[in-house]
Amino acid sequence: MAPAIKTEKLTKRFGDIVAVDRLDLTVDERAVFGFLGPNGAGKTTTVKMLTGLSAPTEGKAFICGQEVTQGSVEVRKNFGFLPDVPAFYDWMTGEEYLRFAGELYGMTSGAIGKRAAELLELVELKKASKRKVGGYSRGMKQRLGIAQAMLNHPKVLFLDEPTSALDPIGRRDVLDLIGKLKEEATVFMSTHILSDVERVCDRVAIIDKGKLLVTSSVEELRRKYSRSVFEIEFDEDDKSFADALQAKPWFVKSEKAAVNGNTPLLRVTAQDVAAARKELPHLIAASGLTLLRYELAQPSLEDIFVEVVNGK
Ligand SMILES: Nc1ncnc2c1ncn2[C@@H]1O[C@H](COP(=O)(O)OP(=O)(O)OP(=O)(O)O)[C@@H](O)[C@H]1O
């Protein structure tokens, strides 16, 4: 079976800028795929090429085995799209908006009514469906946008930064919804919010400067790229201790993280966990400082992301 999404040397240049650089990507069916990268990495440009809104300079993209070309009606049937800043007609009710969108898709009135009722239930907007969209919260609008993108039973759903403008509750609701959607479609979401990725994505790709740096499952990424992080807290200034760490072959970096206005915590990243575990207690003892806390912490996806993007 053809993968949900496939790109072959997908490239977009704007004059001298190479926004997307020979991207080879495969996304399998029924997964939530996180597309990550720092600002300006090329995420939006890639999504635009995948959805036929922008033509590649070189290379090809396929959705469910069909090549994406600008304005292709056949390919358009296979996917739904929610842009990062979706536009709504505030004077329409949620239900009217879905009806309007369904007509644009060329769906029959009966089919729209049935599907809209299903989707309003799924996105938990059934009660609000007779209210004007202008009075919806941002989270509700985003969920309505997802319902709109799912109207014609797409096999692939593109979401561009679906949670970036939402408060924590709106975000949680949208993430819960994304988790449910994978029963119906493959979800491709671009984002730079790593905690969202940890919560909902099965696989991720990280791009920077238009180039694919890594693609793997979130678990593999942790295993492959993680360095172990030790959290150490002293009662006094720890500069001498931090300096002594620099000479150690397993040392990657150290940073200060303030906790609740107390003495800053030292986060020490090590490549060779076993060696660091053996030597750190000796270094702490030799420092003569008063130890308040010593803990081996799980590296966050953020640590991994920074490491991958910085190429270290
Ligand atoms: N229409 C355009 N004309 C010229 N340069 C562009 C155009 N669109 C994008 N770019 C450039 O291409 C690069 C990739 O931009 P893109 O918007 O795809 O990144 P992004 O990963 O989506 O970033 P962000 O997270 O900030 O939205 C950037 O250097 C951007 O300035």
From TrEMBL:
SMART domains: AAA (SM00382). GO terms for molecular function: ATP binding; ATP hydrolysis activity. It comes from the Bacteria. Residues 5-234 form the ABC transporter domain. SUPFAM superfamilies: P-loop containing nucleoside triphosphate hydrolases (SSF52540). It holds the Pfam family DrrA1-3_C. Belongs to the ABC transporter superfamily. This is ABC-2 type transport system ATP-binding protein. It comes from Dehalogenimonas formicexedens.
